[in-house]
Amino acid sequence: MSYTSDEIMTVTAARALTDRMTCFVGIGLPSEAANLARTTHAPNLVLIYESGTIGAKPGVLPLSIGDGILAETAESVVSVPEIFNYWLQPGRIDVGFLGAAQLDKFGNINTTVIGNYADPAVRLPGAGGAPEIAAACKEVIVIIRQSRRTFVDCVDFVTSVGFGDGHGTRQRLGLTGAGPRRIITDLGVLEPGPETSELLLTGIYPGVLVTDIKERTGWDLRVSAELSEIPKPSQSELTALRSLLATMPASEAGGSADSQPGEQAGGPQPGKPDRALVPPRATKEAAR
Amino acid sequence: MSLAEAIATAVRDGDTVAMEGFTHLIPHAAAHEVIRQGRKDLTLVRMTPDIIYDQLIGAGCARKLVFSWAGNPGVGSLHRFRDAVEHDWPVPLEIEEHSHAGMANRYVAGASGLPFAILRGYRGTSLPAHTAGVAEVVCPFTGERLTAVSALRPDVAIIHAQRADRRGNVQYWGITGVQKECVLAAARSVITVEEIVDVLDPRPGAVVLPSWLVSYVAVVPGGAHPSYALGYSARDNNFYLAWDAISRDRVRFGSWLDEHVYGREAVPGGTAEDPVDAS
What we know:
The complex is a heterodimer. Chain A is of the alpha/beta class. Chain A is built from 8 helices and 14 strands. In chain A, the strands form 3 sheets. A 10-stranded mixed β-sheet of chain A has the order 4-3-2-1-5-10-11-12-13-14, sandwiched between helices. The termini of chain A are far apart. By secondary structure, chain B is of the alpha/beta class. Chain B folds into 2 domains: 3-98 and 153-262, 3-Layer(aba) Sandwich (Glutaconate Coenzyme A-transferase); 116-150, no CATH class. Chain B is built from 9 helices and 14 strands. Chain B has helices at 3-10, 28-36, 50-58, 79-87, 100-112, 127-130, 179-185, 237-248, 250-262, and strands at 16-19, 42-45, 62-67, 71-72, 76-77, 94-97, 116-119, 134-138, 145-150, 156-165, 170-172, 188-197, 207-209, 216-219. In chain B, helix 2 (28-36) packs parallel to helix 3 (50-58). The chains are: A alpha/beta, B alpha/beta.
């Protein structure tokens, strides 16, 4: 079964989530991957959205972090101050799943501006829940399409801290979580190295060349001695992913040059042109 | 009281106005009334400015935006917001940005009558260098370094809720967001509701705001559209998708405003037959 680079990226991200994990989910690519995991190998994955929905089990992919289906299917719905203060901040949540517009070699994330802050070339959506998700979750997974535009030597703005300027920054700042343990792209997987936490290429998709990946990285990317090939998506994974994506309305913004993904929690996400346009699901009329 | 009267009374030029509703229960009809009444120089406060503030910014109502995430959820950019920040159109827009956790805690501090809130956040990010009202504090008990964020005290809070009773007690449920803290932090409040009922029977997870807390209630069925009111309407995801093209172009946005905001009476249901005045 043939597959796209986005599909193997989403499947690889889904595989990183194991059953019974708790996962703080951003909208867009993270939400697709987390919901794929829940509908395949991790049925007891606990999805937590920053809208305050804990244990949401959407049968269709939500367009936003506050779609009605998240509240209707959640185990608990709490207020926004509560989700950040009581649930995220103390480090209760296993995995934070983030997107990014720019990422640097130490896994720092920019979703705020491209260029100068006072006079930006591109104004992105901003922080959302990402800084505290990146700080407090036990670990962070970043999912991002790789290019020289997105993989930069130094981010223009640190919206969310990865490893700062190298080893020891997180401890010095008092950030309680372990930070980005995996960067999953449309070409492969990067993980922090043992010395400075600089990201190393550790996984590569079938048919992708290391030179292609280096070409699409804005710094001199180092390759792990234990580089492994990531298994391609199985037929059942692809079928599950495609039926999930078919439940979401197509985005007209998809693929446009200036719709930069600022896809942290709640971040926008360019849609996929091949998605079927379906009407939004009708909200169940509550018993009056 | 009608929505038009409530906005005319509660919202003044130059006010700090917070319209909240986290994806759910966004008070769009009230925002349209603010645009129709031509309010100027507003400081708009909202965690997720969203389409509602894209419209207010594009209409020239705002001088400053205080926010934590300015995108069209699941779709892409807010083009009117970007045009204001990148090109000063239609007027320059000052920005003050935070994280969601920071904004939520700023409302909590305002609601609590405290000058600031404390959280673990912002440390190591570029935000404090560009945002006033963020400072490092040292815990007097443990010596730990934490972040203080200044309280939000809006002049006016505007929210949408599912319903109110005839005395003006307001009830909402589903994703309840930060609206309670927003109303408690503000000096005045305007709340639009889907309907007025005789009795607010209990709902799981519902928040009730007592009438003595609330300044004005107006009945505006569908007043959250294209956002939604759980149990009454569905989120109009197709409108969020369509907004990308409508808002991308200044002229097309202007035509949309003419047709859907300026060209309309104050919202259906928000007229004289309104039974509630909680002020």
